[in-house]
Amino acid sequence: MVRQRAPGEDASEAVKRGDEERLAEAEGLALAIELQVVARGIVPVSKIQPATLIGSGKVEELAGLIAAEKIGLVIVDHPLTPVQQRNLEKELNAKVLDRTGLILEIFGRRARTKEGRLQVELAHLNYQRGRLVRSWTHLERQRGGAGFLGGPGETQIEADRRQLQEKIKRLEKELEQVRRTRALHRAKRKKAPHPIVALVGYTNAGKSTLFNKVTGAEVLAKDLLFATLDPTLRRINLPHGTEVIFSDTVGFISDLPTHLVAAFRATLEEVVEADIVLHVRDIANPDTAAQAADVRKILSDLEIDADDPQHVIEVWNKADRLDEAARAQIETSAASHPRGQAVHIVSALTGENVGALLADIEGRIAGLAEPVSLVVPTEALGILPWVYDNSVVREREDLEDGSVQLAIDLTRQARSDLLRLKHRHPDVRIEGLPAMEEVED
User: Fold this and answer.
1) Which of 3, 28, 122, 426 could bridge 23 with an S-S bond, Cβ 3.0-4.6 Å?
2) Is 47 annotated as a binding residue?
């Protein structure tokens, strides 16, 4: 495996994202599709070679290592042109994959739904379209013309490109139908309405683990890059009864190809439509700052302001992996977050501080909970299930006349709903609601 750093790479970026961390990530991508990593290394390049990316001396050195270790696949953690890929395969006598090709292989393994498979196939075809010169061994042959035309006919490469283009158009039409279907589903949810909370973050930041902890779902969650690919939505009740929909999305990664982002636009539109976005970060990763910058860039491409403190909440996950000194440093950083965003230091694995995160979400969506005293007469006891589902009941007293007195905490949204109930049950006594909280019947 080769990790190559381009000479034109910005110096500040090189400081933020260490070569060793990038190499470890590249190895993690290989392990994500169960490849056996025989060798790994960093290849410094002073000048990119148009033919092979790296210098001839390094190519010879790698060819010797590959022959000695009987390596069948070389991964270059850098984009390769079709010519560079073809030449490296000839010189190294092994299959060569660049970063984009490897990510596509992983996505192909992970896609489970029809939508996911369509998105992966479209991205793969767009990637392959420019590499026909390498992918087919029979392109130099030509087919003869038919009928009266005769002549040499179209070259095989032209025919293959035409077939690819036809497939791409067909897939784009099918994905457009997926987008329309998703738009209909979102429109139905808005009529409900159920606020959307979308989880985004760098791959392997722990989004699916947090999603499972909050929703009780059983989405695949492993210490593995791109463990999950297809989006998952679950409806839950927050601590004070506010109903929301949580959406788990595909993880982001640095240098994600543009056509791959475009292919997954239907999935990522759930993030665009979300009322609140949780930016989940692996705070124990040494590269966490650079990973966060990559996520913010992709969110910006989706026209989402990642620095909006009202819309985006930063969730610093994997706190259980921090020692005391690192934890103290992280808490200091969170208290002085430069963008003024709310920061929650949590452990999705142990559940640490997840409750405070949910309370913050509910406060933003439904308003902060306030204490209310409620007396429900016998003829209105039918509203008690609603009370228990939409509030936190701190005290209950069953009175001698059969009525029930409750001390509860209600969000702003739930208080409005309770006043609507009171219009139908005027004998219900409510104390603690501001006089201005009036609603139409």
Assistant:
1) 3
2) no
Determine whether the annotation assigns residue 207 to a binding site.
yes
**CA dihedral defined by 431, 432, 434, 437, rounded to 10 degrees?**
-60
Domain stop point among 106, 139, 154: 106
Within-domain flag for 62:
yes
Q: What is the pLDDT of residue 319?
A: 95
Residue 178 φ/ψ region, left for φ over 0, alpha for ψ in the -120 to 50 degree band, beta for the rest: alpha
Residue 278 and residue 387 in one domain: no
Q: What confidence tier does 404 reach under pLDDT thresholds 50, 70, 90?
A: very high
User: Are 202 and 285 in a shared domain?
Assistant: yes
95 annotated among ligand-binding-site residues: no
- Shared-domain flag, residues 236 and 375: no
Say if residue 349 carries a ligand binding annotation: yes
Residue 320 annotated as lining a ligand binding site: yes
Q: Is 348 annotated as a binding residue?
A: yes
CA–CA dist 87, 269 (Å, integer):
39
Residues of the domain holding 425: 369-431
Q: Which SS3 state, helix, strand or coil, does residue 405 take?
A: strand
Query: Is 281 in the same domain as 295?
Result: yes
**Among the three residues 86, 106, 126, which one is the final residue of a domain in this structure?**
106
The β-bridge partners of 202 are 252
Model confidence at 345: pLDDT above 90: yes
Say whether 24 counts as a known binding-site residue: no
Mean of all residue pLDDT scores within the chain: 79
192 is in an annotated binding site: no
Mean pLDDT of the region 107-117: 73
Number of domains in the chain: 3
Distance CA(205)–CA(138), nearest Å, equals: 44
Q: How far apart are the first and last CA of the chain?
A: 68
282 is in an annotated binding site: no
In a domain, 411, yes or no: yes
Same domain, 330 and 231: yes
Alpha carbon distance 110, 193 (integer Å): 32
Which tokens is 32 given?
């994500």
Question: Is 65 part of any domain?
Answer: yes
The answer to the question of whether 223 is labelled as a binding residue is no
Percent composition of the chain: helix, strand, coil (DSSP 3-state, to 5): 45, 20, 35
> Annotation-wise, does 317 bind a ligand?
yes
Asked if residue 19 belongs to a known ligand binding site, the reply is no
Q: Has residue 176 got a pLDDT over 90?
A: no
Is 250 annotated as ligand-binding?
yes
Q: What is the pLDDT of residues 357-399, one digit of tens each?
A: 999 998 888 776 788 899 999 999 999 998 888 888 889 999 9
